[in-house]
Amino acid sequence: MEETTKRELVLHVNGERRSIVTRQAETLLFVLRDGLGLTGAKPGCLNGDCGACTVLVDGTPIKSCMMLAIETVGKEITTIEGLDDAPIQHAFVRHFAFQCGYCTPGFIMNAHALIERHPNADEATIQEWLESNICRCTSYQEIEAAVKEVLEAKKAKPTDP
Prior knowledge:
Ubiquitin-like (UB roll), DNA polymerase, domain 1, 5 helices
């Protein structure tokens, strides 16, 4: 028997409360895209392998095709639309760290979380984090260079007391 029960969910997305009525079995990816009009997270493999749908849930990169929207109630969801001019976005442009751009939002979300969680990340940590996303049309050198640039800038910037 198909699940047809719909429910109102109140989600915290990009700093705003958003209400949506959706099936309880709907993935976060499709609620974001089809329900809320936030199309930055992309459907790719739809089984958690490619990372094109990566968003942050309470600061942790999550493949939104693998999480039910109902699981995010009470959590903070950040999409590429919510990064609001983050340094990693500019670094991707400076290093030409994209070609077709389809996977770029997922890479940026993952890289942003890496930089926030591991400001002193070494080469191995960077490579490990980037392995969770797949790009079929560019090398990873440009992406790694963008991440390293932001990490270096963060290290060089004095922290506020």
